[in-house]
Amino acid sequence: MSKSIVINNKTYPIDVADDMPLLWFLRDKLELTGTKFGCGMGLCGACTVLLDGQAVRACVMPVSALTNKSITTIEGLSATGDHPLQKAWVANNVPQCGYCQAGQIMNAAGFLATNKTPTSEDIDTAMQGNICRCGTYQRIKQAVSDAAAVMNQDMYKEVK
Ligand code: FES
Fold first, then answer.
1. Does residue 97 have its Cβ closer than 6 Å to ligand 1?
2. What is the pTM of this model?
């Protein structure tokens, strides 16, 4: 039986070499180039995507090991680019060169799914593995905090 993978809610056959990293599958095969190549060793976070909702590094993950798994990339975070994190990124003018920022946002998305009311230290700990060569860390932190607040308000509206 052929293997398949779900990416941004669409199913794709895994018809590449077994050892192809998910990152190359996304970028070269599907032309989803929002996910970036940084270090290639799972250390910098530029290639962060969500695997069944959890932040993972796509450069060190063979796509063949992800049969029937669900991946979300920056392109799939929101159909219209208006996820609270994306809005907070714009409002805080976070990016500088921008290269790391999709990975930063995806890492933050995975984190906020597990911690709805993060403290300042929680954000530091969650985001410390995502490197930004431009040093935009303070703005990233503010944007994560702002997005968490907005997401909580939205949640409150939903249960009312
Ligand atoms: Fe340039 Fe982060 S904005 S690496």
1. yes
2. 0.95
